[in-house]
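By convention, the token line describes the chain's fold. To illustrate:
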Amino acid sequence: MNFKQNLSMFFGISFMLIFALSGMLILRDIRDVLLIQSFESNSFVAILRLIQIPITILLGVGAFFLTRNGKIKRAFHLFFPINILFSLLMLALFSFKGISLHSSLASSVTMFNKILASTFYFWVGFSNLFTIVLIWGFANQHYTFKRASYQYPLIALLATFSSGIYIKYLMGFIFEKKLYYLIFLASAIIYAVVYIIYFLLREVHLRKKDVLKKPSLKYLIALITIVFFLSIAKYFPQLPFKHLLKLKAPQAKDYIMIMGAFSIKQAIYSMFTLLLGVLLGLWMYIKGSKLLAKIGGVLIIVTTILGLYVFKMPAREATIDIKSAYSLMPYGMLMSFVALFLYLIKELCYFRFPLKNRFSAKILVDLIFVSIAIPLSTYISTLVIVMKGSILGGLNAFMGLFFISMLIVFIALYWINKEQKNNLID
């Protein structure tokens, strides 16, 4: 294989993810601020979050049919121009209609602001998720399993570390200078850069002819189970940590700045775990895909142990100050191992699918089912908090849900392992 093409694809995918992850973090935080300030009723905000599920599923089904038989180019050519135009439209509306992110003006919002905030909320929820799915789906179309096994962790390492730095300093500049319109301008630039990189890489070919047969239905169900329950499980350890941060930093500006600083701390720890992922990938490069589920099982056990430990932090760290709040390294280690599992194990599982079905399977699993799992975890947590009176009061319930979810993921890996025992991916 051409070394220059491999290098171009490696750095191309890395930079696509750096920009996409940075944009996702920016838009996600601003989306929540704009939505909450536009609606005085928390119950109506909860209804909007519920409505987002069928909307995302509907858009996901449309994307599924649009890209059948591996026609991922259709999604890129349609999706990114629309996102660029939407960002520019938001920029124009923000500039000329006086949309504000200042809490002091929340009481004076108009019906126009509410409609706009709702539209922006739905758009960000889908586009953030679909952008990441598209980028990894594009990589899966071009990489082989063996090369992806050790190069994907390196790509994730570059993207995670760079986006942490990016979000801290960009958001600090925006809030310090009160240049809120830069949020939408940056969004348009981000989508444009990702699309340009794709356009330059679209003809690069790293793989040989595809001869795989469709996997069994059990394999697909097992992969859905892994992604669905892992998406739910990784949310629960965040609750006590973010609750603690919000108590120490009730203002949105302070909270975002702390999370940006914490992202850098987390990225540093991610470097060590993702470097471990490279070593594991090299092991799979030599031994083949029969090690995939076994390595995943070990990582799930480690992640579960770390996750159970994280639930014990709030009681012990309740008196920490803002400066030390983001230095709770066990949480960073937990999320690093979850990221390692997601990028190394879950993405590699898609190489079991024939090329023409690979991206369709990814949309089904990573877009449709994740779009269900994320709000579902929110509603489950809300129910527990209502029943127990507070987040800290419901820690035992969250710990139980986390453990059960991880156990289900471990069992699903058993079914993945059964179909990979003959090195079928290679």
Q: What stands out?
A: The chain has one domain: 3-420. Residues 103-108 have pLDDT under 50 and may be disordered. Residues 303 and 338 are 7 Å apart (CA to CA). The radius of gyration is 21 Å.
